UniProtKB/TrEMBL annotation:
The chain crosses the membrane at residues 7-29. The keyword Magnesium does not apply. Keywords: Membrane, Transmembrane, Transmembrane helix. It comes from the Bacteria. It comes from Sphingomonas colocasiae. Residues 40-113 form the Mce/MlaD domain. This is MlaD family protein.
Length: 316
């Protein structure tokens, strides 16, 4: 009877200690949970490598862990990941979440970054009853989302390389390489000639530069000469033009004054001069006739009539 009573007492003490330990553990859990904040993250991509208890870091600093991973029943395209982070973690407006692989182990973690300095914390309650941190595609997510396009481009590149490296193109490339080799040999053989040509070209360029410099000096001298001697010449030329203009004006005035006299001369004097010329021509003809008579018959020819010729009768 006493032995059974001892067992009951020991059992009671043990149960009391276990109850006290459970209460203490719950108290510690509640005490530790008060310094952490829960957030939901909705990923529209695979969360492969992520598990309950996976690390959550903020800019590379460990700040919490994953509490729960489940499909979102309202939209199966999304995966809801609930995390717990330390209350002092600056989860401010602008903070985003990405899934980042850890080395080649296949294990992933959640990376938080992008908080804006001075911005308020994320406190808007989401559909899960806790604030929601927006996501952005990580390197792995971008690679997986762009994988079909990348494979298509790789296929196209492979096809083009196959066409490029066809037998015909390979023969053409071999011919091009042969020609390049021949050209390189020819250039090597003509190296001295090319060097001499380059030297002559350098000399020609220097001479051209000297000539350009001399032309510049000549242009400067010409400008000085025009400035010093051209201006007096221009002044004299201007005076000459002014004098010529004055002379032309005077000549125009003289012609205007003489125009009435020229009209009278052309209307009156010219006809009288014509009549005088005709009279002189008649007088000249008369004098010519008198001179002819004097030559033929002497002075008598002017006062008497010409003698008739004597006629003799035949047979008497």
């Amino acid at each position: 009877m006493e032995t059974r009573s001892n067992h009951v007492l020991v059992g009671s003490v043990v149960l009391g200690l276990l109850a006290a330990l459970a209460i203490f553990t719950v108290w510690l859990a509640q005490l530790g949970g008060g310094s952490e904040t829960k957030y939901d993250i909705f990923f529209k991509q695979s969360v492969d490598g992520l598990a309950k208890g996976s690390s959550v870091s903020f800019s590379g600093v460990p700040s919490g862990q994953v509490d729960e991973i489940a499909l979102w029943p309202r939209d199966p395209e999304f995966v809801r990941v609930r995390i717990r982070v330390k209350s002092e973690t600056p989860v401010l407006q602008g903070t985003t979440a990405t899934i980042q692989g850890v080395g080649f182990t296949g294990v992933s973690q959640i990376m938080l970054d992008g908080a804006v300095k001075g911005a308020p914390p994320i406190t808007d309650i989401g559909p899960g009853g806790v604030p929601v941190i927006p996501t952005k595609p990580g390197a792995l997510g971008e690679l997986l989302s762009n994988a079909p396009q990348l494979l298509e481009r790789l296929t196209t590149l492979t096809e083009r390389l196959t066409l490029l490296l066809s037998d015909r193109n390979q023969a053409s490339i071999a011919g091009i390489l042969d020609n390049v080799e021949k050209l390189s040999g020819s250039l090597a053989e003509r190296g001295p000639e090319i060097a001499a040509t380059l030297a002559q070209t350098r000399i020609a360029i220097e001479q051209a530069g000297n000539a350009a410099e001399e032309i510049g000096k000549l242009a400067g001298t010409t400008n000085d000469l025009l400035d010093k001697e051209g201006r007096p010449l221009m002044a004299d030329l201007r005076k000459t033009v002014a004098s010529a203009k004055a002379s032309m004006d005077t000549l125009d005035a003289a012609i205007g004054d003489a125009r009435p006299g020229l009209q009278a001369f052309s209307k009156q004097t010219v006809p009288e001069v014509g009549q005088l010329v005709r009279d002189l021509r008649d007088m000249s003809e008369a004098l010519t006739a008198v001179a002819t008579r004097l030559d033929r018959g002497g002075a008598g020819a002017l006062v008497g009539s010409p003698k008739l010729p004597d006629y003799k009768k035949k047979g008497k």
